[in-house]
Structure formats: C-alpha cells, structure tokens
C-alpha cells in the first residue's frame, strides 16, 4: 500500500484554508491546484504561503476556471490569500 499525504486543510468560518508552508516544495503547486479545482463557482479557499506566490498566481490566471484573488495578509512571515472561484 502506498503512503498517503494528508493535506494541511482546515476551515476558517466555513472557508477551507490550505497551509502550503507544510507541503513539500516539489508537491506544493500541484496540491494547491488540486485544492482550487475542488472549489465550485462562488466557493473560496484561503492559501497560506511562505512568500508572495507570484509564479503560482500566473499559473492560476492560465487555468480554465477563473478566480478572484484577495490578499488578506502580506508578510512578513506568511502571505494569506483568498481565492474565490468566479467561473
């Protein structure tokens, strides 16, 4: 049996939160895209990142789905970003 990795997903006021800081770097973007893919139109998630994730934001812009991006906290230690699926 293959080992499984449990994503560090929690819920804040019914908005799931993904803490990317504890996901191994090689898996991080894939895990975030998987979590974004689970959101329906109008649903949000909060990402906690160890830096301003500009490369990831460019990847999100290239997705078929669209997301509103709102910075909730900008450093200095963590960045908290809310993604809300709009289409």
TrEMBL record:
This is DUF2249 domain-containing protein. Residues 17-85 form the DUF2249 domain. It holds the Pfam family DUF2249. InterPro entries: DUF2249 (IPR018720). It comes from the Bacteria.
